[in-house]
Design brief:
The protein has four helices and three strands, in the order αβαβαβα. It is α/β, with parallel strands linked by helices. It has a single domain, classed as Spore Coat Polysaccharide Biosynthesis Protein SpsA, Chain A, CATH 3.90.550.10.
Length: 97
């Protein structure tokens, strides 16, 4: 009889989750956020959208990607800035204000 752990449910049901994380100048917090997501067994993909950070966010993400296979980094370089705009444009939604 199968146990009712999250990992068993994930394997049996084939459920996967992709987490999208907007980031702009998050050098101090991005590692803990990504590592927390990576520790969740149902999260199979972590997509970080780095929105024109001018601190060490990109370097921190590069360091994390060397050891976390599920981490995907998108460097967002569009004239419309902001975390919400970068994620909405990534998934194909134009933000009109």
């Amino acid at each position: 009889m199968p146990t009712s752990t999250k990992s068993t449910q994930t394997e049996v049901c084939g459920t996967t989750v992709s987490a999208i994380v907007p980031a702009r100048n998050e050098e101090a917090t991005i590692a803990s956020a990504v590592e927390s997501l990576a520790a969740q067994p149902e999260i199979t993909e972590i997509i970080v959208v780095n929105d024109q950070s001018n601190d060490g966010t990109a370097a921190e993400l590069k360091r994390l990607s060397a050891r976390l296979a599920q981490l995907r980094i998108i460097e967002y370089q569009r004239c419309q800035v902001g975390k919400q705009a970068s994620v909405l444009n990534l998934i194909g939604i134009e933000l009109i204000i």
